Amino acid sequence: MERASTSDDYARGRRDGLRLALSILEAEEAKWEVLLGESTSWRTNATRLIRHKAYQVARKRVQTALNRLLPKGEEAMPVEIATMIERAGL
């Protein structure tokens, strides 16, 4: 019985970690999205576009990993994680 509880805690911790990573990636993606095309330098704009696309790809991969770990029917973010994200300012 104790082993099942530990396994559930571990799985919940993995999901919470992925949710936190997902929120950080979304914040970074939004930060770079604002800067797209703002510079007069084409190199800077190209670098920003590549960085923004990299964040989009990373976000999609983390979301896919999270979806694979979520139990069926659990799609909403737990209150504890939402509170931690708000406290972090993301």
Strand content: under 5%
In helices, the fraction of residues equals over 70%
Q: What is the structural class?
A: mainly alpha
Please write the string of helix (H) and strand (E) elements.
HHH
Describe this structure as you would to a colleague.
This protein has one domain. The protein is built from three helices and no strands. It is elongated.
Brief descriptors of the model:
90 residues, mainly alpha, 0% strand, elongated
What is the topology?
Elements: H1 2-35, H2 42-69, H3 79-88
Helix pairs in contact: 1-2
In short:
With 90 residues, the protein is mostly helical.
